[in-house]
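Mods, move this if it's the wrong board.
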Amino acid sequence: MLHKARTKSEELKILEYLDSRMNLEEGDKNHLIALNKGYEGEVLFDKLTAGLTSQGIVLNDLRFKVKNTNVQIDTTIIFQKTLKFYEVKNHEGDYYFSEDKYFSWNGTEWANPLHQMRREETFYRLLLDEIGCNLKLEPSLLFINPAFTMYNAPFNEPIIYPTQLQRHMDMLNNVSSNLTSHHWSIADKLLSRHIEKSDFIQLPSYNFKTTRKGFTCAKCKNFSVYLIGRKILVCSLCTHEEGIEAAVLRSVEEIKLLFPDLPIGTGVVQQWCVILSTKVIKAILDKHFRAICNNRWTYYI
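Not the wrong board. Structure tokens:
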């Protein structure tokens, strides 16, 4: 049973917006690709856990601060006697372990995911002690990409490879589990400790003046959109259509995320959208937000 859904991180959403509106440097572009690939792998596992037939409480994408240390847990499943958590990796290609180090086939060393999982296990155990949970904690390192191959793998570690994933899901479906209010209380306590925003966000420098303005296509993210009549935006590349009202509201959310300290006013939104008049934008903002007026300007909340 899903108790906390996964959403894109603020960092990933901001980088996706910036990728459309400025030229990201190579390091930022690679960071965006890595974040997106990781998110896609986690979503793949979410689709599998959504089909669980045994009684289990699924909590996705939990972030905690334990002993002044930030901890992120990709997936947690609470069963009657155990609390399982997964570190999900969407690595693709050939990798190998050597002397407790983790390498891609070309010899590039990567952060050892087993070390990451063990670190998470240590702090998760401390957190469970703090909230009074005595369920057995069972960690797993899950490689979910079917195009992933591991060589010289440690034998006695809780690693799940792509070829083992279906068997693992079958095992989860056969777990004997009867949940009580105690288990739901544990889930709610974990949610109460969840931190929405990460302390560590890696973003390039940007500002309102230098970011590219204009509507982007809601589907393909290109700027190749044009107005049909007064109510429809159409993308000339993918032919996706979107109502003007939805496009303006989407733009407002983009502005809020990119520039959280910038008041949302008619002029700001018009500058961002470009092709719509202030009259049209004001009507949409008046409909969906509350106007706050002072002696100098009006902004919306």
